[in-house]
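BUG: 3D viewer hangs when loading the predicted structure for this chain

Environment: internal workstation, default settings.
Expected: structure renders.
Actual: progress bar stalls at 90%.

Input used:
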Amino acid sequence: MTSLLHIDASASHYGEFVSRQLSALFAESWRGVHGDAGYRYRDVANEPVPPVTAAYVNLGRRVERHGIVAPSEVPALIENEAEQREWDLTLPLITELLTRSKARELMR
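Structure tokens produced before the viewer hung:
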């Protein structure tokens, strides 16, 4: 299954920036050929992904030391509130990727 992650990052939400106009035109053309099933839109100006913090790195390194860890196992490795906040921000993004990945596998 072909997929497209359409990302906008311009501060203006009114379509006045050329980058938003071009990405919208490309996405519209792509969806005309491939349909909406593989299409995902993300506006990082409207819903920014926060910068990496020390808590994120510390939790990430701890997870790495345990090898391949399922998302459901990560909470047991969290040591403080800052790491919990980072995990709460990260889990929805991981879930989105895993969901799309599984959908692609089913389509093969």
